[in-house]
TrEMBL record:
Catalytic residues (UniProt): 61, 139
Key words of the record: Heme, Hydrogen peroxide, Iron, Metal-binding, Oxidoreductase, Peroxidase
GO terms for cellular component: cytoplasm
Pfam families assigned: Catalase, Catalase-rel
UniProt-listed SUPFAM superfamilies: Heme-dependent catalase-like (SSF56634)
Species for this entry: Paenibacillus mucilaginosus 3016
Name of the molecule in the record: Catalase
Catalytic reaction(s) noted: 2 H2O2 = O2 + 2 H2O
């Protein structure tokens, strides 16, 4: 029991030991001008806590904003009962609400970088379901740069500033993507206005990777998840519009989200899934497990399963937004992984980085802890502050199996999904890579102003790359669509003719141009 303290419920300042602080202005010194002494407990506690106020930034997606809300299920998927495809409890009942926490982010640069940069945006949702947490860790764009997780650290290095000068330069980006033809589709989205969403409210979200849904019989289908903004709509920016905002405000997206929720204008998204049977689909010219590809929405319609409303701002940015930890391994019964290789690589990376970034017991923090029954035999570790013991569990028994008061395994909620494999262990690409086909489709589907922006943004950045990089990119664009390649090629030639120095810019000039194009340093 907590002992009563005369200061309980008043505004008296204390230290973390509960000692009331009567002087928070002066350290103890020998005389008013004298040296200080080492037993200044209050000062040393205060300053050493301050010295440790920062945890490492996320290695990617460092800049972000978050909000709380709820997900409301429709009970159906399109016209069918959702139970036909998944037994996940959160989807089953029409009107059922599940609390959520969402963190939006930009990817490449640091925790205080401008929110106007051309960059994918993260869209990570934590559902606190009755069966434990489900994290849907997505982006605003529906495809990704690479399909093999082995390439991810190189990709991020290439997108970051030069390790010697710490200056950003698009040549690093284009050097990598020109040698990774599978990135052509993502680059086409990124350099169009879709690469700078106006804010976090007016953008889509997508799980990008392929997952599975599993029903009671253990039957699975492949699914892709999509968040479609409801009343607030979708809005993207031109490069000029983004620059004008950046000149005034480097936090416009965080501010927009916070203020909208404060004034009661709650953003809403509908969750849709696309469903494919769980097989290789030889009739398609791409592999459904390839995250650089869209599943054509005319053939595989977006089926609505529920909506999400964000209606509460965090009370403390650090405790909730900074320490939140999402991961693709965090699924509930009825949801499963597919064999998408990128997804499998991601699934190791998230909890690994979080044990380092936040600490071994990061799942004990209120923002990450499930809001349901948690009873494990995990004990100890840095900063352990609870023992997640079931009420009937003996405090002595921290192992399983046990017949003297230990935890018991849960009863299965349906048949296991048991995919069978019979193949050689290899290092090989997917067979149907088709790196350029969908990039061309996307180029042709853009509106005229989006295509014009795409070309002018590419021309600006490619003009300061060395010729072999430029030529490789133009070759990829041409293979996607002849008009696409021709326009970039002519644009670069015209720009270089007018500014011949651009083709051989110095690192400093390159960085200057890069800064104006959104590839600046942190
Ligand atoms: C954050 C790894 C691909 C979306 C992160 C973090 C890591 C990581 C280490 C930092 C997590 C933390 O500190 O809490 C990877 C790897 C990938 C990959 C290894 C590929 C092999 C993707 C893809 C998407 C994505 C394809 C989108 C579908 C996100 C988001 C966050 C994030 C939204 C921020 C989550 C938050 O707000 O805390 N990723 N990632 N990542 N990643 Fe990935």
């Amino acid at each position: 029991m907590t002992p009563a303290n005369e200061h309980d419920n008043d505004m008296t300042l204390t230290n973390r030991q509960g000692h009331p602080i009567s002087d928070n202005q002066n350290i103890r010194t020998v005389g008013s001008r004298g040296p200080s002494t080492l037993e200044n407990y209050h000062f040393i506690e205060k300053i050493s806590h301050f010295d440790r106020e920062r945890i490492p930034e996320r290695v990617v997606h460092a800049r972000g904003a978050g909000a709380h809300g709820y997900f409301e299920a429709y009970g159906t998927v399109g016209d069918e009962p959702v139970s036909k495809y998944t037994r996940a409890k959160l989807f089953q009942e029409k009107g059922k609400r599940t609390p959520v926490f969402v963190r939006f982010s930009s990817v490449v640069h640091g925790g205080h970088s401008p929110e106007t940069f051309r960059d994918p945006r993260g869209f990570a949702v934590k559902f606190y379901t009755e069966d434990g947490n489900w994290d849907l860790v997505g982006n605003n764009l529906k495809v990704f740069f690479i399909r093999d997780p082995l390439k991810f650290p190189d990709m991020v290095h290439a997108f970051r500033p030069d390790p010697v000068t710490n200056l950003g330069n698009p040549e690093r980006f284009f050097d990598f993507v020109s040698n990774s033809p599978e990135a052509t589709h993502m680059v086409t989205f990124l350099y169009s206005p879709w690469g700078i969403p106006a804010n976090y409210r007016q953008m889509q979200g997508s799980g990008v990777n392929t997952y599975k849904w599993v029903n009671k019989e253990g039957q699975a289908v492949l699914v892709k998840y999509h968040w479609e903004p409801l009343k607030q709509g979708i809005k993207n920016l031109t490069q000029k519009e983004a620059e004008a905002i950046q000149a005034r405000n480097t936090s416009h997206a965080t501010q927009d989200l916070y203020e909208a929720i404060q004034r009661g204008d709650y953003p809403e998204w509908e969750l849709c899934v696309q469903i494919l049977s769980d097989d290789e689909h030889p009739e398609l010219d791409f592999d459904p497990l390839d995250p650089t590809k869209l599943w054509d929405h005319e053939k595989f319609p977006f089926l609505k399963v529920g909506k999400m409303v964000l209606n509460k701002n965090p009370e403390n940015y650090f405790a909730e937004v900074e320490q939140s930890a999402f991961g693709t391994g965090v699924l509930v019964d009825g949801l499963d992984f597919s064999d998408d290789k990128l997804l499998q690589g991601r699934t190791f990376s998230y909890s690994d980085t979080q044990r380092y970034r936040v600490g071994t017991n990061y799942l004990q923090l209120p923002i990450n802890a499930p809001k349901t029954h948690v009873a494990t035999n995990q004990r100890d570790g840095q900063m352990a502050f609870i023992v997640d013991r079931a009420p009937g569990q003996s405090p002595h028994v921290n192992y399983e199996p046990s017949s003297i008061g230990g935890l018991k395994e849960a009863a299965p909620s349906g048949k296991d999904h048991e995919p069978a494999y019979n193949a050689k262990l290899v290092r090989q690409k997917l067979e149907r890579t088709n790196d350029f086909g969908q990039a061309g489709d996307t180029y042709r589907k853009f509106e005229d102003w989006e295509r014009d922006e795409l070309i002018s943004n590419l021309v600006a950045d490619l003009s300061i790359c060395r010729p072999e990089i430029r030529d490789r990119m133009i070759s990829h664009f041409t293979q996607a669509d002849a008009d696409y390649g021709r326009r970039v090629s002519e644009g670069v030639a015209a720009l270089l003719a007018n500014s011949p120095h651009l083709g051989s810019v110095s690192a400093q000039e390159g960085a200057e141009i890069a800064k104006n194009s959104g590839h600046g340093t942190d």
